[in-house]
UniProtKB/TrEMBL annotation:
Transmembrane segments: none annotated. Residues 5-248, 248-483 form the ABC transporter domain. Keywords: ATP-binding, Membrane, Nucleotide-binding, Repeat, Sugar transport, Transport. SUPFAM superfamilies: P-loop containing nucleoside triphosphate hydrolases. It comes from Pseudorhizobium tarimense. Belongs to the ABC transporter superfamily. This is Ribose transport system ATP-binding protein.
Length: 486
């Protein structure tokens, strides 16, 4: 590869400061990205990663510091686009009421003329097949009919696509948060090919394995500053976690020893066409695994609706639900952080139909400390929180209820490793106290924490794994037709 091209600076942010009221989102951060490299960007929730992305992408003007593209100081979205910067945002940004091809047109303004629709269709199809060979997305469908994983794939494909000018830097903010391991692997392989051909990628992820295996260089942010910037080969998981300011904890293996007692607290026939019955017992953590989009979310929704069909709030709801697609069905975007947290327990926080402000604030304060929701004030709007911190609020919302069963739809999307470890411990202690969790996860590390796992394939349960049978090999074998779990 050309050594000069390697050294070429695509984007440089120097001494960048951005404040939102009292919050210093960026406090003098420096980030340089050169041609032909994948830079991994990691840091705790609220460290400033999405903010620096917005600055580089030209959507946010820094209060101090400079941005240069190819050595030329400039600002704004037009300048960043002109220099080949593309961004796949953490909160996906496709227009839901347009088709996949129409969304490609929105992103690529040079798709013009009478044949633009055909061209757009060809562009996305080609790009999707290059990145995710074997995908089954219909590019003529309207985006709101796609699953969250498919939307993520489409947005990635559109960003890497080239019409007149090729992308020079593609920023991927949590690109695999909704993708299963197979799709995530395909994307990481494509990133490596793109970088080898001279392109640049800024990869933000809380899944440290993919950062370590894909990046050439890793930048660690903490509290709005860059605290480490070294070749990826000089980091291992432990040193990376420590650089982020967290502590690596050993995962206990006691979950495998759990003995089922009493009657099932949940027993549900899922798919009338098959004999898929999902059961759960008090104190169990039941995992739903398999390739993404094979019916796990639908199963959770079916279970939830069968218990809460009338939608009336009750003092002791039987089940709570942690949404994975927080933008679509998780957060109330015009409400405060506190109201978003307390909305599922209003009955319990009220006396004589009046909500007790004091009790609500006390609950908010307790959970803010327990899972470190990073905000100076719980009355701030929910959208003032970083993505991972919003997800923590949704998690707290479910745990605050007295529900005996908690359904979780891939709830750790974008949550940092320190908090994840905290949440895993909360799950264990709540399960020991008799709560039941039914947990769909796209991460194998989380599936391993479960007592029992149902592997889904084509909308039905393909296998049930217990204790030591819960291995990646068995989950993968059961995920594909013809595979046999041992
Ligand atoms: N529009 C906003 N208004 C107020 N505060 C904001 C706004 N956007 C970001 N912040 C704050 O700036 C800080 C940095 O947020 P940012 O989204 O950059 O973090 P992050 O590192 O991307 O976190 P995550 O891993 O959770 O995505 C956070 O404390 C966040 O609450």
């Amino acid at each position: 590869m050309n050594e000069i091209a390697h050294e070429q600076e695509v984007v440089a942010a120097r001494g960048v400061k951005v404040a939102f009221g009292a919050v210093r989102a960026l406090d003098g951060a420096d980030l340089v990205i050169r041609a032909g490299e994948c830079v991994g960007l990691v840091g705790h929730n609220g460290a400033g990663k999405s903010t620096i992305v917005n600055v580089i992408n030209g959507g946010l003007t820094p209060h101090e510091g400079t941005i240069s593209y190819g050595g030329e100081v400039a600002q704004g979205i037009t300048a960043s686009r002109a220099h080949g910067v593309r961004c796949v945002f953490q909160e996906l940004s496709l227009c839901p009421n347009l088709t996949v091809a129409e969304n490609a047109r929105v992103m690529h303004s040079d798709l013009t003329g009478t044949g633009w629709r055909k061209q757009a269709l060809a562009l996305v199809k080609q790009q999707l097949s290059d990145i995710f060979p074997g995908h089954t997305i219909d590019c003529e469908s309207v985006v709101e009919d796609l699953t969250i994983a498919e939307r993520q794939m489409v947005e990635i494909a559109i960003s890497f696509g080239a019409v007149a000018d090729r992308p020079r830097l593609v920023i991927l903010d949590e690109p695999t948060s909704s993708l299963d391991a197979g799709l995530a692997g395909q994307l990481m392989a494509y990133v490596r090919r793109f970088v080898e051909a001279g392109g640049s990628v800024l990869l933000i992820s809380h899944i440290l394995g993919e950062i370590l295996s894909t990046s050439n260089r890793i930048v660690v942010m903490k509290d709005g500053k860059v605290v480490a910037d070294k070749p990826a080969s000089q980091f291992q998981t432990r040193s990376l976690v420590e650089a982020m300011g967290s502590v690596v904890r050993e995962q206990g293996s006691d979950r495998t020893a759990r003995v089922r007692t009493g009657d099932a607290v949940l027993s549900k026939q899922l798919n009338p066409r098959s004999d898929s019955r999902l059961e759960a017992y008090a104190g169990e953590i039941v995992g739903l695994a398999g390739l993404g989009g094979h019916g796990q979310t639908e199963a959770l929704l079916e279970i939830y609706l069968s218990a809460n069909g009338n939608w009336w709030p009750t003092r002791e709801p039987k089940m709570a639900f942690v949404a994975g697609d927080r933008g679509l069905n998780g957060t109330f975007s015009l409400w405060s952080i506190l109201k978003n947290l307390s909305v599922s327990s209003l009955k319990a926080l009220s006396s004589r139909s009046m909500i007790s402000d004091g009790r609500e604030a006390e609950v908010g304060d307790r959970w803010r400390k327990r899972i470190e929701i990073r905000t100076p004030d719980m009355d701030n709007p929910i959208l003032s929180l970083s993505g991972g911190n919003q997800q923590k609020v949704l998690f707290a919302r479910a745990l605050v209820t007295t529900s005996k069963i908690v359904l979780m739809d891939d709830p750790m999307r974008g949550v940092d490793i320190g908090t994840k470890q905290e949440v895993y411990e909360i799950l264990r202690s709540e399960a020991s106290a008799g709560r039941t969790f039914i947990w769909y996860s796209t991460e194998m590390d989380e599936i391993r924490l479960c007592d029992r796992v149902y592997v889904f394939r084509d909308g039905a349960i393909a296998a049930e794994l217990v204790g030591e049978e819960i291995t990646e090999a068995n989950v993968l074998a059961a995920s594909f037709a013809g595979g046999v779990a041992v």
